[in-house]
Amino acid sequence: MQKNVEPASQLKGELIIPPDKSIAHRAAMFSSISDHTCLISNFPSARDPRSTLSCMHQLGVPMTVEQDKVEIIGVGRDGLKAPSSPLDCGNSGTTYRLLTGILAGAGISAELIGDASLSRRTMKRIIEPLRKMGAALSARDDAFPPVKIEKSMPLIPIRYELPVASAQVKSCVLLAGLFGEDRTEVIERIPSRDHTEKMLGLEVKQRGDKRHIYASLKDEVPSQSMRIPGDFSSAAFWLVAGCIHTDAELTLRGVGINPSRTALLDILKRMGADIRLIDERSEGKEPVADIQVQTTNLIPTEVFATEIPNAIDELPILAVAMACADGKSAIRNASELRHKETDRISAISKILRDAGVDIQEFEDGLEIQGEPGRSFSRFECTSEDDHRIAMAAAVAGLCSDGDCIIDQAEAAAVSYPDFWSDIERVR
Ligand code: S3P
Fold first, then answer.
1. Separation of alpha carbons 29 and 178, rounded Å
2. Is the pLDDT of residue 151 over 80?
3. What share of the chain is helix, strand, coil (3-state, %, to 5)?
4. What whole-number percentage of the chain has pLDDT above 90?
């Protein structure tokens, strides 16, 4: 699908932010291996979390799904059944990596497949620790989907210091560890999103500058009945649009503000953004707020290495904000961005360059020369089938001097199915 994004004369109004993809994946998976009947409301209609639901269903987990209401009857840690056909994770790296951990732990024979983009993403980072635990896994070129899990002996617990800051890898190892008699320990130097440990109630210890997280069969899997909060990573597009558009005033309703997800707020505030959190409250175990944002003159900044994992999904749209700041900004230490649904460093720098921005690409990031109050030059681009690139390009298009064409715009539905209609709502 091709989208023609016309410049917006204003961006004003209220938006209800779609439910959080990261939390939804976990709610569906953890409910399935719990001993509880879990009622999840505000479950996303987005493609990625729906892939997780269908995989869990294929693994023999009884569930009823009525629009955003999902009831999952947990089968416990020993109740999953080997699927008769490959589990299709679609575009979803979180489904793929977390589910591989669960299946390896449970000793379920299965093959996991994905779409073209997911099939290009490395699974080496989960294969290595799972093999250390004794799992029998094979993969194409020993790294890429499809990964096949052979029914294996109970896994050996490990102590694993993460070589990359990744919540998916952390969660994969912890989930495999959840099936072991003895404790598996995962150590992270730079913290990544903490939904897994929080939602499972795992023990976490801070020792010096490292976080240690523990999981074993002794950890009871709690009920996951909850209302899923709005996705901060989806709100991010409007936070930036609200800052850089010359006539913007937006209110974003029901946004999850878990501190392990909101580095973009700190970065934008450092850039002088006029962002206010109102009606801060809790939904289940997660903090939620409404967020107001309006037009501001941004100043340049550099992203700290410790902020990278906490803002990883927001870096493409942050690059758009930086292009409108009064001077040179930088995102470095972010080579992980090259391993997402597409190479996001290359994708966003190409789009911004075509939009008239002076931008320099490095192996681990970007340097961007901003111009305050700028209109981007009209551009044509492809999302490279990446939802966050499609939406980052659209925000630039709304602040441009002519119609911009975005190919493969349907990718937005992976996390934000109503994104294109929400644009019409506020323009
Ligand atoms: C996610 C972790 C991040 C993020 C992804 C969702 C999660 O990936 O980019 O969109 O839900 O755990 P990495 O763990 O690969 O950094």
1. 13
2. no
3. 35, 25, 40
4. 98
For a mutational test of ligand 1's pocket, the pick from 20, 21, 22, 186, i.e. the residue with the most ligand atoms closer than 8 A to its C-beta, is 22
Kindly report the protein residue whose alpha carbon is nearest to atom 15 of ligand 1.
166
Domain 21-226: CATH superfamily, name plus number: Enolpyruvate transferase domain (3.65.10.10)
Can you point out the beta strands (E) in 208-327?
Answer: 210-215, 226-227, 248-256, 274-283, 286-294
CA of 168 to the centre of ligand 1 (A): 5
pLDDT at 75: 98
For the chain, residues classed under CATH 3.65.10.10 are 3-19+229-426, 21-226
Q: How confident is the model at residue 284 (pLDDT cuts 50, 70, 90)?
A: confident
Domain 3-19+229-426 indexed as CATH 3.40.50.1820:
no
Atom in ligand 1 nearest the alpha carbon of residue 339: 15
Residue 260 one-letter amino acid: S
- The protein residue with its alpha carbon nearest to ligand 1, atom 11, reads 22
Which pLDDT score is estimated for 152? 72
Question: Which residues are catalytically annotated?
Answer: 313
Reported confidence tier of residue 231, pLDDT bands at 50, 70, 90: very high
Q: Is 48 helix (H, G, I), strand (E, B) or coil?
A: helix
Residue of the CA atom closest to atom 16 of ligand 1:
166
